[in-house]
Amino acid sequence: MMKRNYLLTLIPACLALTGFGTEIEDDYHECTSWIVMPELTGGKSMMIHKNRDSSSDRLQLYKSVEPGKNSWISISNLNSKLAYAGLNDKGLAVAMNSGDPTEFYSDKAGFYTPTICRSALENCASADAAVEHIRQLIKARNYQHKKSGSMWFIGDGKKAYIIEHDAVHFAAHEVKANFAIRANAWHYPEMIIYSKRTPAQLTNHHRREFAVRQALFADGTKYAEPVTVEKISFASRINEFPEDPKCYPLCGKRTNSGTTLVIDCEYPAELSTMVAAFGPPRHTVYLPVPFLCSEFPAELTSGKFCDAVFARFKANRELLPQDKLAEFERTLNRRHDAAVEKARTILKKGGSKAEAGKILTEAFLQNWEDVRKLSEGK
Q1: DSSP secondary structure code for residue 376 in this structure
Q2: Which of 154, 157, 225, 376 could make an SS bond with 265 (beta carbons 3.0 to 4.6 A apart)?
Q3: Span of 27-31, 95-99, 232-236, 291-295 with lowest mean pLDDT
Q4: Which residues touch 56 (CB under 8 Å, ≥6 apart)?
Q5: First to last CA, the chain
């Protein structure tokens, strides 16, 4: 397999921001998303992660099953039936971020991004198809997003893309590096020319990107070992930059959830998984939710579990010390990974999706029981 040049140009820290203040505060965002290609995960999976910055504090696990449409799962706002970072039954993952402020915006007509995300998941079976689906919506002016543009992170286990656009301009490129990341700032030259961000605001966003590189790669520059779900979870919980106090972290006061979409390269429709933090990641557990899971606890689908997470968040109380939380999650991930490999063996021997789904559901319910007991202090 040909190796890719996986690291982008490193961005300097925000120490240069001394003297800037209000203009950064006016541009407060924490959303940060990234794509890790199979060359960096050990070859079995592609991973797309999203930290979501939102005031919504009532979240649910939602699985959409509509006749004639692809089924999909996502963390959704309670009762909204919309997607912010989702995975469908073809193994297609789609996540979105806000982009740069621009004069080419639409705030009066068209679909909001969660509706577009749902539409792509429901109607597309590949990354190529999802890019074209979103392209046509923008071309038809069927998009609105207040006074800024957007970004999309799309993958199917074979190809991945990042889209940057506003209400008029659209740029999509296949991810050729092994790793690609965005905070809320466009990177493509075709789109940067339409940005209204100041240098100080732009550097603030790049600081979050650099923090993720530091967490995933040795010194932020060297690939030392496979990128894992645990490493991604750690990066998603960064809540301060002591050396750069003017910069906004990934998991500060406005991050309401985290989602890692793990697309299995061999069996994307059967073995892909959404690893979900139903609430601010520092105050809850990342729970692996296999797409083929056939039984979801009411606490997750009703928002009850999320309510308890936000109660801890508002009280500034962590579920566990961060090192203990990571250790707990390793146990969950080992159980899930073992079930995935058992299900893989079944599929290779000609077994059915139902058989594989049963194995994955059993592991999920065991993990959920451990999470439930921890959350309830038992």
Answers
A1: T
A2: 157
A3: 27-31
A4: 77, 256
A5: 48
Asked if the model's pLDDT at residue 7 lies above 70, the reply is no
- Within 8 A by CB and 6+ apart from 163, the residues are 131, 134, 135, 150, 151, 152, 154, 170, 171, 172
pLDDT value of residue 23:
61
Beta bridge partners of 277: 258, 286
DSSP state of 90: T
Question: Nearest-CA neighbor of 130 among 87, 169, 73?
Answer: 87
Spatial separation of the C-alpha atoms in residues 359 and 354, rounded to whole Å: 9
Q: In Å, what is the CA distance from 95 to each residue of 107, 131, 135?
A: 21, 12, 15
Q: 276: which residues sit within 8 A by CB, 6+ positions away?
A: 61, 75, 257, 258, 259, 260, 286, 287, 289
- SS3 labels along 116-161: HHHHHHHHCCCHHHHHHHHHHHHHCCCECECEEEEEEEEECCCCEE
Using N-to-C axis directions, what is the helix angle for 199-216 and 229-236, rounded to 10°? 140
Q: Domain residues of the chain, as ranges?
A: 24-375
C-alpha distances in Å from residue 44, one per residue of 92, 100, 226, 266, 271: 15, 34, 11, 7, 11
Q: What is the DSSP string of 188-206?
A: -HHHHTT----HHHHHHHH
Q: Mean pLDDT throughout 84-91?
A: 98
Domain 24-375 belongs to what topology? Penicillin V Acylase; Chain A (3.60.60)
| Tens digit of each residue's pLDDT (9 = 90 or more) over 24-68 | 567 888 999 999 999 999 999 999 999 999 989 999 999 999 999
Phi first, then psi, for residue 306 (nearest 5°) are -60, -35
User: Residue 312: how many CB atoms within 10 A of its CB?
Assistant: 17
- Count CA atoms closer than 13 A to 319's CA, side-chain side: 31
Q: How many CB atoms sit inside 10 A of residue 26's CB?
A: 10
- pLDDT, tens digit (0-9, with 9 covering 90-100), for 305-328: 999 999 999 999 999 999 999 999
Beta bridge partner(s), residue 94: 86, 154
Query: Do the Cβ atoms of 145 and 98 come closer than 8 Å?
Result: yes
Q: Are 46 and 91 in contact (CB under 8 A)?
A: no
pTM over 0.85: yes
Average pLDDT, the chain: 92
